[in-house]
Specification:
Length: about 220
């Protein structure tokens, strides 16, 4: 059964990847295309240019490559304990929901859908759910909206000053992205430790003294 579901996960994982690009990449494509039409660089009523599709797809792929292992660890080990059948069910449910939403033209968060699917499979299996991790994820989602709005307003004000403001905004975004990537490399999570409960070694027990290791009684005061 485990082997069968493991092979099935190859298909469902591909469907999740397809739904990720279908939903998340289309949001960015739509914004860029709308901007090009609003500035007169593209005729009204036309679809996204090929270079826009390529850049958005490349950005999604690079983001997943740089931060995907942490997301995999959080969803696969942080929320609840998943077995292969539960992983198959979570991926199938996530892909179905996101692809159906994309077909209907609805925008949603792939991360939220996948998180809900993982929690649902954990509850269905009857295993404990780490609600502390779920709470931190919820707080992060709530903070995202005002933070994105504030950063967007600042970037817009800077871009309105002219080409110099646009260049400064682009450089600042590149520096912030590089800093975040550098932080992630300090405590890396990759294919070698993604399945560990404590991949960064933060929960390792403190080293015992030589007396304790050898069994020598400690003098009582």
């Amino acid at each position: 059964m485990e082997n069968g579901f493991r092979h099935g996960q190859t298909i469902t994982a591909c469907l999740v990847a397809l739904s990720h690009g279908t939903n998340d990449a289309q949001k960015t494509m739509g914004i860029i295309t709308l901007t090009l039409i609003a500035t007169g660089a593209q005729p009204s009523g036309t679809g996204p240019e090929l270079w826009v599709v390529a850049i958005c797809g490349l950005a999604i792929a690079m983001g997943t490559y740089m931060g995907g292992w942490r997301v995999i660890h959080t969803l696969g080990k942080g929320l609840t304990d998943l077995n292969t059948p539960q992983g198959f069910a979570a991926e199938a449910a996530s892909a179905t929901a996101v692809l159906a939403s994309s077909h209907l033209g609805f925008a949603l968060s792939t991360t939220q859908v996948c998180s809900g699917s993982v929690i649902g499979t954990g509850l269905g299996r009857g295993v404990p759910v780490n609600w502390g991790v779920a709470k931190r994820m919820l707080v992060a989602w709530l903070v995202t909206f005002p933070a994105a709005a504030g950063m967007g307003a600042v970037a817009c004000c800077a871009a309105k000053t002219g080409m110099a403001g646009t260049v400064v905004t682009a450089v600042a975004c590149a520096l912030v992205s590089g800093f975040i990537f550098w932080l992630s490399r300090k405590n890396p999570i990759d294919a070698t430790n993604v399945t560990e409960d404590d991949p960064q070694g933060k929960l390792q027990p403190k080293p015992q003294s030589a007396a304790v290791r050898s069994g020598t009684p400690t003098p009582q005061m």
